[in-house]
Amino acid sequence: MIDWDDVRYFLAVARRGSVRAAAEHLGVNHATVLRRIAQLEERLRVQVFEKLPTGYRLTEAGEEILEFAGQMEASSNQLETRIFGRDQSARGLLRVTLPPFLATHLLMPDFADFVRLHPDIEMEILSTGEVANLTNREADVAIRVIVDRKTLPFNLHGLKGPDFSASVYISRDRLGSWHEGAHDPLRWIVINNHGISDWAPQGKIQVTEVPFRTLDAEAQIAAVRQGIGMTRLPCFVGDSDPLLARVPGAEPQPHGALWLLTQGETRKTKRVRLFTEFMSHRLAAYAPLLVGRSISRN
């Protein structure tokens, strides 16, 4: 009999193209993935992957298995969500996925309040750049910035929160120097390989054509604080930082809205309902801050 766990590992490699990527996704080591794939091949008596310099490619047999493996996964997820939806206890695991900046700069105090109110609910916060798949039970609740509601997955239940805006920010010290007439070159600070944003020339302070690149949002904010240049930030981040100020002439720009998303039967469980009701009230209270009409948190 085929072990469903072996099939999960097979799907992870097939979808991500490498053992390393599959291991990172599953939270295991490289050797575990290889062992699981070997077990599956031994049970089926076929080779499911061909190892190439560019990664792992499905063999002809692997392509056939992929179709049935997807069906197994869908059935397993459907069974889990139906059983999970009948759970009406305020205890157990609750997995919440959201962008890192929302977790670290806005909502962690609210998560702390929630776990104090419900000490038997075990929370797992997935604050990464990756979008978790709610249908596959990678998370129970997602808090996402949705630019166009037409892009909402049809199979998810959405609860709209406040609108969300961003603006352009510079260090207060550097802004003070600019007001005093010191117009030293400023750089546009970007994350990864993004070019200079259309936002850059919007304000009264101009930037050079040579950007300053960082790998993540925290390094981006640190670079602005050090006076290297200016950058685009969510209003709730920039307005709440005493070391930063908006660039003169750069007004807050709408960037979508925050949504609480759940899936199917999952949203019927008591701990998911408790969390979404709690967070919808907290998010509503942040509305002025999120659109840039407030510079302090209550």
Return the structural class.
alpha/beta
**Annotation field: number of helices:** 10
Average pLDDT metric: 82
Report the radius of gyration as a whole number of Å. 23 Å
Order of helix and strand elements from N to C terminus: HHHEEHEHEEEHEEHEHEEHH
Q: How helix-rich are the residues, as a percent range?
A: 40-55%
In short:
This protein is α/β, with parallel strands linked by helices and 298 residues long. It folds into three domains: 82 residues, Winged helix-like DNA-binding domain superfamily/Winged helix DNA-binding domain (Arc Repressor Mutant, subunit A, Orthogonal Bundle), CATH 1.10.10; 108 residues, D-Maltodextrin-Binding Protein, domain 2 (3-Layer(aba) Sandwich); 89 residues, D-Maltodextrin-Binding Protein, domain 2.
